[in-house]
Amino acid sequence: MNRRILILCTGNSCRSQMAQAFMSSFDNTLEVFSAGTEPAEKINEIAVKVMNEVGIDISHAYPKSVEIYLNEEWDYVITVCGGANENCPSFAGKVKHRLHFGFDDPAAVTGDTEFIIDEFRRIRNEIKNCFFSFYMKDIKKMELPKCSCNDSL
After folding, report:
1. Nearest Cα to 71, choosing from 97, 89, 94, 92?
2. Average pLDDT over residues 82-110
3. Cα distances (Å, whole numbers) of residue 15 to 41, 58, 73, 114, 123
4. What are 29-45's pLDDT values in tens digits?
5. Is there a contact between 103 and 131 (Cβ–Cβ < 8 Å)?
6. Using the 8-state DSSP alphabet, how is residue 30 labeled?
7. What whole-number distance in Å separates Cα of residue 92 and Cα of residue 62?
8. The sheet that has 4-9: what strands, in order across it?
9. By the 8 A CB rule, do 29 and 18 touch?
10. What is the pLDDT averaged over residues 71-89?
11. Catalytic residue flag (residue 130)
12. Mean pLDDT of 76-102
């Protein structure tokens, strides 16, 4: 049976979309979804750009409401921002594991264009590394060298 993973953020326009794309790229047998507690109107264009830089196209993704997933069964529900963690709704379906991996909000970064893109890249890389560690340790059940992301696992 495939593992079902739901990744939540507030807007579902950046962090949760990147995490969903990375998890799907690690293992195509996983059923990975993302949603927002207050979904944005569209996916963040800079998130699309920085994911394209690592060979992952999320341009066809769109923000979805967590409401559509509340009655489903999940192996993991993972929040990636403080707002979604604090406002995570109750699921009528069965959730085996509820986790939180917090990341800075790249959409909230201010400054010149180069700085903003660099912050999106930094957060993208943190998401990739953290979710890869989670994938190897919790999904594949392999021992990993210690890193800061593993501290929360």
Report:
1. 92
2. 78
3. 15, 12, 22, 19, 8
4. 999 999 998 999 999 99
5. no
6. S
7. 24
8. 31-36, 4-9, 74-79, 95-100
9. no
10. 77
11. no
12. 76
Residue 92 to residue 84: CA distance in whole angstroms: 17
What's the longest Cα–Cα distance across the chain?
47
How far is residue 18 from each of residues 85, 101, 125, 142, 145, measured CA to CA in Å?
A: 17, 13, 10, 23, 24
Residue bearing tokens 């059940």: 141
Reported as a pLDDT band with limits 50, 70 and 90, residue 134 is very high
Q: Check pLDDT > 70 for residue 107.
A: yes
Instruction: Give me the residue label for tokens 């990744």.
Output: 7
d(CA 30, CA 33): 10
Q: 84: closest CA among 9, 5, 15?
A: 9
* pTM listed for this prediction: 0.88
Q: Which residue in the list 9, 14, 130, 149 is annotated as catalytic? A: 9
Report helix, strand or coil for 85: helix
